[in-house]
Predict the structure.
Amino acid sequence: MTTPAKYLFKPPPQFSKRARISSFAEYQRLYEESIRKPSQFWAREAGELLWEKRWKKVLDWKPPFAQWFIGGKINVAENCLDRHLNGPRKNKAAILWEGEPGEKRTLTYQQLHRQVCLFSNVLKRNGVKKGHRVLIYMPLIPEAVIAMLACARIGAVHSVIFGGFSAASIQERLADSKAKIIVTADGGYRRGQIIPLKRNVDHALQGSHSVRRVIVFRRNYADIPIHEGRDVWWHREMEAVQAECPAEPLDSEHPLFILYTSGSTGKPKGILHTTGGYLTGVYSTTKYIFDLREEDVYWCTADVGWIAGHSYVVYGPLSNGATCLMYEGAPNWPEPDRFWKMIAEYGVTILYTAPTAIRSFIKWGDHWPARHDLSSLRLLGTVGEPINPEAWRWYHHHIGGDRCPIMDTWWQTETGAILISPLPGATPLKPGTATFPFFGIDAAIVDDEGREVLDGTEGKLVLRQPWPSMLRTIYEDKKRYKKQYWSEVKGCYFTGDGAHRDPEGYFWISGRIDDVLNVAGHRLGSAEVESALIAHPSVAEAAVVGRPDELKGQGIVAFVTVRTGIPTTPALRKELREYVAQQIGSIAKPDEVRFTEALPKTRSGKIMRRLLKEIATSGQVTGDITTLEDFNVLTQLIPEE
Ligand code: PRX
């Protein structure tokens, strides 16, 4: 059955007329061509970037290890900055920034370039060399971007840690990356509160570690201790260096960054991205999917601590020479119309945000956006989780004024760039589907045996061919990389997501089918939260599952058994929730802690999460329980009517 035309949101004709890809037939033709000859497509895209030395071979594929643009030399910062300085973009705003308390700053490409060169020299002055890892733990301020680009300029490998993560999370990432330098700020602002970033760094650095230097940006004059010999002030260092810093020509496969993300074990994985292929992927997708124009004011609301911030706040838009808006704080500070006020004030044309934010906007009320002139917007985007059709429709009507196409973009930390998404001038939209694969992306849906399923049947979403912005490995753990992504379905990259295709070939992604939770668009491993709980002295065992949550997409429910003799009081429940927040960060705080005498396990001792998920969601169990070891456990877990 095909979708009746009245339920499709066709690209507005005026939009298509100006767009790079202006009809669905054109998309299909180019897509087929790109799948037949992916190297040709990607070489064309890469050719639009500035290479110090052109590559000899586009792809070397020894599954599961790919190398792209072999022999090529390129610098990402040069492509994001220097390349734009020879023409009118020189004095164009690269970053329009607003702090939560309301300060405003503009950095032109020329100014941003200068700051990046200065900070590159600061890094060098503090002993950072090509290949060294640099941890960045900052608020969403221009200096976070400056620090990232400075690393890219000299060939250091950045690892940005989201400012909402705890000292323990910093410690864990430090132990894995063995970074010698941390770049941080005294504090950041969130909902009127100061986030004590430097204090968290100090806590993380108690005990032994690899860090030699902490560079501290002064954001809010918080009263913080300075450790002589270890800590230096950003502003002082910047005064001590020259603004000359040539970009280092780097091998296309030189590591650009490590970004830690949650998987199915207790320990986050360091996803490693490299230079030439990554830049080609984010450059090309930003150009086509947002159909960027010179005059756009582009706003991706993600924090640079997440992959969306790396690819679509920093590298994708800046390599395209765009003007990017950045906002430090919460969307409802001081009132729930902060975003709409900023869109009107800056004349934002493209807004890229998360379904969880959209659901909050709906809850806060239509009158907040209605107060502001949002007519500058021409394109909307979402990312992070499936968007429910009601939220899609609300976004389309109340924010997009029924005229802006919505790009529902599917991708992952591992994929580096958007892989499944509509193209705004070409794809007829249906609320709730990310539609079709991007050029060169061979996506398929398969069953447990790896056979492609029929349209309409749910299966595993896989990718059958490598793509330039794919992760290259898990940092220092090739074995885990192979096992995690390339062993589930033979010859394919397994995404961890379930999906089906409708009769018209649209991809509908339902979300994770592994033990990864998606809370407010943020990824968390069940095992990671469980490890945090088990570390508490009162806890004997814990199992963590997700349950549907109206605002956050998924909420966290923890089933906990306590050690003998420990009373299961409301105070302990509260303490455990706080404890997880301390161990990981407040995004991981369970919504509910349920005490239980035992956990349902299979005869081989595996916790039956599926049962717990059902209990957490509906209070009932309907699925197969034949492998359950002790039926009594189940009866205790199900609340009485
Ligand atoms: O489950 C998918 C969901 O987010 C996961 C990736 O999370 P992360 O690596 O943190 O990256 C998020 C931002 C790129 C995916 O495995 N996801 C992301 N976008 C969508 C989505 N699910 C459905 N539709 C989307 N558009």
Remarks:
- The two ends are 42 Å apart (CA to CA).
- Residues 107-251 form a domain with the Rossmann fold fold (CATH 3.40.50.980).
- The longest strand covers residues 539-549.
- The chain has a mean pLDDT of 95.
